[in-house]
């Protein structure tokens, strides 16, 4: 019952904020749709004559809509929390979160929902389902896509969480969030277009290319189930690393009160 009340309160507050800033939210939604359409249009031109990097046009569209869906899952649940958390850390206003009888790691980022992102998410998921249906991937293909979607959204969360946590020690890291956003955007491409060293780094060290390319490769090219296991291990390691840094950061935190 207590959890239900918390969820209900978060949802109500988020809806109220959405209604207050609905004009801005509408513009944000429209711009996101425009950028998505541009990506699909560019892909349509790029793959108009033949396959490129052993990818078909439809597989490329699956990659684009997959990464958009994962990004909007992260945005819906955590992007506002991360933006607010950086300010709370730097301004010494984290006290209220720390005294609550819940784990501050999650409470500090999970009390706001970005309502506009749910509309972009529905659009992206709808297009993803459409392109998958064109390939007749079957139930296993949809299951692979769902598992990778959750893992990728979690990876985006963890990369941003690590960036936020560094604010306990270093000021002025807001540009780092833009770098992570750009990194995710650049990863929304077939990895074969990048030099081999870039492929290796962003597959096995910072696995954004692994996240974006793996579901398509598993369904259409190679099964690569061992890479799926590696992806899961990386997410787990990043999660516990982020928790460790968070706990150390709290000890380093200085209150403004």
From TrEMBL:
Keywords (A to Z) from UniProt: Membrane, Transmembrane, Transmembrane helix
Recorded superkingdom: Bacteria
Annotated InterPro entries: ABC-2_transporter-like
Pfam families xrefs: ABC2_membrane_6 (PF06182)
Positions of transmembrane segments: 20-47, 59-80, 113-133, 139-159, 193-212, 224-242
Listed name of the protein: ABC-2 type transporter
Organism: Lactobacillus iners DSM 13335
């Amino acid at each position: 019952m207590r959890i239900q009340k918390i969820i209900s309160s978060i949802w109500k507050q988020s809806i109220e904020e959405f209604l207050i800033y609905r004009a801005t939210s509408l513009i944000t939604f429209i711009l996101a749709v425009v950028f998505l359409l541009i990506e699909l249009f560019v892909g349509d031109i790029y793959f108009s004559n033949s396959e490129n990097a052993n990818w078909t046009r439809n597989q490329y569209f699956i990659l684009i809509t997959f990464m958009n869906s994962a990004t909007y899952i992260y945005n819906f649940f955590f992007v506002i929390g991360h933006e607010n958390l950086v300010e709370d850390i730097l301004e010494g206003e984290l006290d209220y979160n720390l005294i609550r009888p819940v784990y501050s790691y999650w409470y500090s980022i999970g009390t706001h929902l970005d309502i506009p992102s749910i509309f972009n998410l529905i659009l992206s998921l709808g297009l993803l389902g459409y392109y998958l249906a064109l390939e007749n991937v079957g139930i296993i293909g949809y299951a692979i896509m769902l598992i990778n979607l959750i893992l990728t959204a979690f990876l985006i969360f963890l990369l941003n969480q690590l960036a936020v946590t560094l604010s306990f020690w270093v000021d002025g890291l807001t540009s780092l969030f833009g770098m992570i956003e750009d990194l995710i955007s650049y990863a929304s491409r077939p990895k074969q277009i990048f030099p081999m060293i870039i492929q290796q780094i962003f597959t096995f060290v910072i696995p954004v290319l692994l996240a974006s390319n793996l579901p398509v490769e598993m369904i259409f090219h190679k099964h690569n189930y061992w890479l799926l296991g590696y992806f899961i291990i990386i997410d787990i390691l990043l999660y516990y690393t982020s928790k460790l840094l968070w706990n150390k950061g709290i000890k380093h935190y200085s209150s403004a009160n």
